[in-house]
Design a protein that fits this description.
With 401 residues, the chain is of the alpha+beta class. It is 64% helix and 9% strand. It has 2 domains: 6-235, Up-down Bundle (Rhopdopsin 7-helix transmembrane proteins); 246-400, 2-Layer Sandwich (Alpha-Beta Plaits), CATH 3.30.70.270. β1 (142-145) and β2 form a beta hairpin. The longest helix has 27 residues, at 74-100.
């Protein structure tokens, strides 16, 4: 009886792994849209998926064994080999962009990072990889012999360039993890931090399983986990304002109530956008949405350096909660100033607030919110006694448009 070589026996399994991996990534790609996060974050995630899919296509060479290197013209083989290395470099690059899209930073730092200098700088490692792999310089990375590729010392430089992106992304995730204010955020950044281990394990597997689809075995569970976390993030985020939604804020307040005390009180502030109905009726619902987005951006801006979070509670109501000693006394002025600085609207939105400071963990969640809501109602009554000026301003804007 003729024995079938082990190399031939495992080829159907190699094909099955490659096929399932490619199909799975393709499905995830089709399900990934901008409803799952901000535009830059989603585009980078999809770029990483495409990079992995290209790598899988390159790994089809494993089905041909050593004959692959002699069956095709040398330039074609060199292109396919270089594309395999490049696809992983692109995956690292897009992972860095994905993490960078959620970098928590002050607005002045954002302006600095938007300069062309930084845009050029982050592309340099990828550019160096492309130069090495798609020019005659590739001989310093690998060469083709009769039995396959022979790797050279400059391959370590390619890996180093990949790790520049991975280490930078990990640093950003550690920074965001340190600033995270909720359990859900911390969980997300923890997953991002350990992502660098995925690439490290891949490198080790490739060294021992050179002729097997080792990376594909790791890619699918990691990508699935990241995709699920993107979906989970959407579940807890308001679609219009990108603030936390009612569900996430309720979880956050319940967690913080359990540990609040007289020395470490929890401040809960309810905010209502005044005359929201008038904005909709006079200027239209699109302007109403713009007003909600403007006040949301203003709240995110003033709360970024503080131990507090904001959520859209429903309609034109928002809730702010956190253990920040100065939050109750400074919030109204900070929000008013931030709205005055906003230039996206032709008027400055006005708002009412109601504050409750909880000092006992025995206080029920419903009672804490009810106390803040009662304070909001009283403030709103006072502010609506002089509504004429704001309504007049809205009518003037409508006539002038």
């Amino acid at each position: 009886m003729t024995m079938v070589p082990i190399e031939v026996q495992i080829k159907p399994f190699i094909f099955l792994i490659l096929f399932i991996s490619f199909l799975s990534l393709n499905i995830i790609y089709s399900k990934t849209n901008e409803n799952l996060g901000n535009k830059r974050e989603i585009h980078a995630f999809k770029g990483m998926l495409v990079s992995f899919m290209v790598y899988i296509l390159e790994d089809l060479r494993l089905l041909f064994g050593d004959s692959f290197y002699s069956a095709l013209p040398r330039p074609v083989v060199l292109f396919i080999m270089s594309t395999g290395f490049t696809s992983m470099s692109f995956a690292c690059f897009f992972w860095f962009l994905h993490v960078r899209a959620n970098l928590n930073r002050p607005s002045n730092f954002t302006k600095i990072c938007s300069l062309n200098f930084w845009s050029v700088l982050i592309h340099i490692p990828l550019f160096l990889v492309l130069i090495l792999l798609y020019t005659p310089l590739h001989v310093f990375v690998y060469e083709l012999s009769g039995n396959g590729p022979v790797f050279k010392p400059m391959l370590s430089f390619i890996l180093l360039m990949d790790y520049v992106y991975l280490i930078a992304a990990t640093g950003i995730s550690i920074h965001n993890r340190r600033l995270a204010k909720t359990r859900h955020e911390k969980k997300k950044y923890n997953s991002q931090i350990i992502f660098i281990l995925f690439f490290t394990i891949n490198g080790i597997l490739i060294a021992f399983l050179l002729n097997l689809p080792a990376i594909e075995l790791c890619v699918i569970p990691v990508v699935l986990k990241l995709f699920v976390e993107l979906q989970d993030s959407q579940i807890y985020t308001d679609a219009l304002t990108k603030l936390y939604n009612r569900r996430r804020m309720a979880d956050f307040i319940n967690e913080e109530l359990a540990t609040c005390s007289a020395d470490d009180p929890l401040t809960i502030i309810m905010v209502d956008l005044d005359y929201f109905k008038s904005i909709n009726d006079i200027l239209g619902h699109d302007e109403g949405d713009k007003a909600l987005v403007a006040i949301s951006k203003a709240m995110r801006k003033i709360l970024l350096p503080r131990n507090a979070v904001a959520a859209r509670w429903g309609g034109d109501e928002f809730v702010i909660a956190g253990k920040d000693a100065e939050l109750a006394s400074e919030f109204r002025n900070l929000l008013s100033n931030a709205l005055e600085d906003d230039k996206t609207l032709s008027y400055t939105p006005i708002f009412s607030t109601g504050t409750y400071i909880c000092t006992s963990p025995a206080t029920p969640f419903e009672q804490a919110l009810s106390n803040a809501d009662s304070a909001l109602y009283k403030d709103k009554e006072e502010r609506h006694k002089a509504s004429g000026d704001f309504i007049t301003r809205l009518n003037e804007i409508k006539k002038g448009s």
